[in-house]
Amino acid sequence: MKTMIQMNNICKTYGTGESAVHALNNLSLEIQEGEMTAIMGASGSGKSTLMNIIGLLDEPTSGDYQLNEIDVKTYSAKKKAQCRNATFGFVVQDFALINEYTVKQNIEIPFTYTADKKLKEDKDKIIRNTLEQLGILNKINVAASKLSGGQRQRVAIARALVCNPDIILADEPTGALDTKTSKEIIDIFSQLNEQGKTIIIITHDPKIASYCKKIIEISDGKIISNQNETSN
User: Fold this and answer.
1) What pLDDT sits at residue 94?
2) What is the pairing mode between strands 3-14 and 62-67?
3) How many C-alpha atoms does 156 have within 13 Å on its Cβ side?
């Protein structure tokens, strides 16, 4: 199995001197292609900082990070931006939709940044197919403001998928949803994982984490547990 993410002795420090905050402290991990991984921890444990570094939204203070066996230190700013759009799909707790845009207009946003001409040519077909897969094709022309929480998160997942990324990074994707809708959203991630997507879910909820095959637990910027679980 291919190692997609390899991190060694990653540190992230904010501030200097006595006011310095060590968000990550010599953290090392591996994530293999096709894994569905939960990164767990309480608020302030460093899990969101870790996700931002994985997704090339932030840089470590020290340590080594290889993405698909390439040291990300060698990436230019342009290469990192391209990678964020092509390699990663991001799903966040508050959905990050533009309320006055329709579902289609929200999902079209990643196509603005892709360098893949074929993706742009097939944009309408990809959007319709993705929405159909997620069960919300009938909402394609509805404003995001008129959707339920579960529908909004499905749109956010669709937006993350349309450029066919290898890795889905989901930060507390069920945090704003009720129990029934949370289960529906996690089932979608499980199905995507079965289709070959590498899924990384940031969560504080043990129930959500239990759906993942690997659970990495973080406390005070360090990994305190790394285990493989039987998926539900």
Assistant:
1) 85
2) antiparallel
3) 26
